[in-house]
Amino acid sequence: MKVSRRHALAKAIQLSLLVALPGLAAAQEAAPARDATTLDTVQVTGTRIKKAEIESQVPVQTLTRDDIERTGLTSIGDVVQELTGAGSALNTKFNSSGNFGFSPNGDGVGAGSAQVDLRHLGPKRVLVLVDGMRWVNESSASGVGAATDLNTIPLAIVERIEVLEDGASSLYGSDAIAGVVNIITRRNFDGGQITLNYGQYGEGDGELKGFDAAWGHNTDRSNLFLGLSYVDQDPVFSRDRELSRVPVPGLGVETGSSATPNGRFIITPATPSTACPLTDTDDDPSTPSIPFCNITTPNGSSFPNGVRYPQDFIGFTGANRYNFAEQNMLLTPSKRTGVFGQFRFHFNDNVQAYVKALYNRRESVNQAAPEPLFLGLDAGTGNPWSEHITVSRLNPYNPFGFDLTTEGANPNLVLIGRRPVEGGPRIFEQEVDTKYIAAGVEGSFDAGDRTFFWDVNFASNKNEAEQTNRGSYNIRNINIAVGDPAVCAATPGCVPLNLFGGPGTITPAMLQWISPIVRDRSEQKLQTFTANLSGDLFEAWAGPLSFAAGYEYRKYEGFYSPDAITVAGYYNGTQSLPTQGEYDVNEAYVELNLPLIKEGSFGKSLDLSLAGRYSDYSTFGGQFTPKYGLRWQVADEFLLRTTYAEGFRAPSIGELFGSASRADLQLSDPCLISITGSPATGNRANCAALGVPAGATQANSQISVQTGGNEDLEPETARSFTAGFVYSPAWASGVPWSDKFDFEVTFYRHSLEGAVQAIDAQTQLNLCVQTLDPTYCNGITRSSVGGINSFENKLTNLGSIKASGWDVDFFWTLPETSLGQFKVSWQNTFVTQYDAVGAAGQVQPRRPGVEVNDSAIPEWTSNASLSWKRNAWTASWTIRHISDMTEICQASALDSPYCDDPVTGDNKLDAITYHDLQVGYHIDWLKGLQITGGVNNVADKDPPVCLSCSLNGYDASTYDIPGGRFFYLRADLRF
């Protein structure tokens, strides 16, 4: 919401409140281990009042280093994605490049990155901090992202991870709508540590190797910590698992691609033949039949001396489609090398300075099947070089003896689909360099009998990414190479191209002309300055009035620079254009804590907290966000708490300035017969009005969609509410059967207005066919044969998102006995509501218990763990549960034996429970050698089959990979 639209009196009151109060600070302290960490004890630089209370208005889940090591994982993203409150987000199980294209949210592909989503509101609505300072957004050389890549932060430097699952824009600023992830780095460390990691899947692939080294030195006046981390993850290929080795589980190649090594040729010649008989193409008896070809050559056949028409051709069927799944990956390879250091010096008891620096390199790879060539009226790529094309009759490899063309009064080329396997698979190699430096001064001073804390901080953070793409093609050069040989001969380097002879007939000379090496770059920068002050203002009737307030400045810069051939429109793959933008923000914030009641008849204490932040953005103006909280300590063992907060999220550089790009989405066109022959489901009259002839067939399950940013976007606004209690009964504390028992329940509700996202593309297409409303049909165009050749699906301020649910957690520590000590934790999230509605009232398909668009919202997610320690031995057993869900099978998957109801398309994804085991032994050598071994997914459970998912037959953001039993071993030596 822009400043000009806000009520003037309200602004004046809010601004005067901020101006009248001093600035903010908080000194970083070591947090308690797990049980009692909360919002106010997360000592984040520049954002909190320093308080002694253990519990506050909103609990913060803390993952200690022991918790992290118990997972057996080596990526921060993988660790936080297993939280019960986490939603669907990118990780290394997504083989994005070459398969998905540019997502509708304006941030590119994000290949190789790992992100975090809280409350299913999306990764871009989660704020990631490192030691309380914002971390730069991701760069993967494919757009300008709005979320943080957690693979840019080495897990080895992490002391703990604190996760706040509540709106906190008033305390943290933009992006903190769904919550905050604060990564605390290691600092007070004395001595050395070397850690070796090794693991692999039970199938013998996906080998993981890791090496970490740390060294620290403490004196009376200084702390020095240095860390080095290296992780090398090998791939797992889709062909090596039964579930993922075909495009749609249970159906073989009939749902594969129509771009094949032998080629698919749909043409309408002037005269019929045995290969191209007279055909009623529009199911209209009043119109004459025409010669029509839908042909190929036999699978695997090759004609190096030239293919003959019509005798060498056969009709194209589902058995001739290409199995692109075999070349894909279930787990993408990644190498990550990180170096980190920080130094802190105490000038005296009241002043200290620090400096910290990080360098991290991520080298990751995505791989897709050899790139398909789609040429003709029904190519559907949106590229004029493939849709305005003529295969000349003079081309030496054209067997038909006439021009195949999309031009003129009588075009006859509907589709050529050829897969040049001679060029090998598409390889996308990303190199991402992250550079971070921060410095600051902290201190305290006394004023009367009160102590105040202050700090000044500066941080500069940059992500630079380059992607090198091999195995893609130059469509302009292809257009020339299949055209008039005289034009080709006059073009330096051109060699006539053979699309008809089958596999092996595209020669190295041909490949040299059409095969570029494509290099894309992107970069994001973030500079932050904060100055803060905190302390107690005065003694009120029930205790001190505490405050924290301060100022923050941030500058964001980002660009995406695709290869020159992409900018020129010559790239055969997903199209994109350059993006560049920048903006800055000035902010002032304040937090107050006022004790209302002392210990008495109303309980131990009642505290009111107030917080507010005013943000002034160079892109859209100002925004004020308040937060209110009550904390009622009814008794030593019982706490009630509630908060209400307003929040916002400013559109990112990619969302504002992102240029037109292409996404290839799994869509079922209601007007077309599916690729497996299922009848069209759309209203026939409406489809005819849209220009679709009867009997038209969808060529491929993927439809190209144009995405992009929108400079008219306004900030998202949000309202968040939480209420809950913490019960730590005295009768379960310090007794023979229990040292401590905690029971926590929290209700949450988020209401988001003006959400920045595109309408679900399948929903838009369905509504267009159902209603013919220009709201949905504008931007969707079709070729003369009925297929979609242009689909615009750009960002807008969508109507609203409402999400609510419950967190229910138990923590039980048993007394130590001769059998050792046991600890039990059981954490649960129940999602009761998720409703997304477009600005025109269109209901989006996401809701609890539903799988859609490669993401799921389970109604119940649960993690339970039992840990044990006795002398030198440790062990743990972790259970991860995900409740069942439903989905709508793609039209092409209705015949799959996994689709429960082919009539309605409903399919159930069964609930799944994973079991993880770990055992460790401590050896007293030097300062200690810890040997740990474990198995994740002990029972080797495969994920439930997903028939609406885009790739590999399952939801990679929710489940372990198929054949996911993973063995690991870790040796940790301290000296």
List the helices and strands and how they pair.
Layout: H1 8-20, E1 60-64, H2 65-71, H3 76-80, E2 126-130, E3 133-134, E4 158-164, H4 169-172, E5 179-185, E6 191-201, E7 208-218, E8 222-233, E9 236-237, E10 264-267, E11 278-279, E12 290-291, E13 293-296, E14 314-315, E15 329-331, E16 334-346, E17 351-368, E18 373-375, H5 384-387, E19 390-391, E20 404-405, E21 413-418, E22 426-447, E23 450-470, H6 475-481, H7 485-489, H8 508-514, E24 518-540, E25 543-561, H9 564-567, E26 579-597, E27 605-617, E28 621-635, E29 638-649, H10 653-657, E30 661-666, H11 684-689, E31 702-707, E32 716-727, E33 740-753, E34 756-757, H12 761-771, H13 774-777, E35 780-782, E36 788-791, E37 796-797, E38 800-813, E39 821-837, E40 851-852, E41 855-856, E42 860-870, E43 873-882, E44 885-888, E45 906-909, E46 912-923, E47 928-936, E48 966-974
Parallel strand pairs: 2-5
Antiparallel strand pairs: 1-4, 2-3, 4-5, 6-7, 6-48, 7-8, 8-16, 9-15, 10-13, 10-21, 11-12, 13-14, 16-17, 17-22, 18-21, 19-20, 22-23, 23-24, 24-25, 25-26, 26-27, 27-28, 28-29, 29-32, 30-31, 32-33, 33-38, 34-37, 35-36, 38-39, 39-42, 40-41, 42-43, 43-46, 44-45, 46-47, 47-48
List keywords for this structure.
mainly beta, 5-stranded mixed sheet, 13 helices, 48 strands, disordered N terminus
Give a quick precis of the structure.
Helix content is 8%, strand content 42%.
Structure commentary:
- The chain is mostly beta strands.
- The chain is 8% helix and 42% strand.
- The chain is built from 13 helices and 48 strands.
- The strands form 11 sheets. It has a 22-stranded antiparallel barrel. Strands 1-4-5-2-3 form a 5-stranded mixed beta sheet.
- A hairpin with a 3-residue loop joins β27 and β28.
- The longest helix is centred in the N-terminal third of the chain and has 13 residues, at 8-20.
- Residues 1-48 have low confidence and may be disordered.
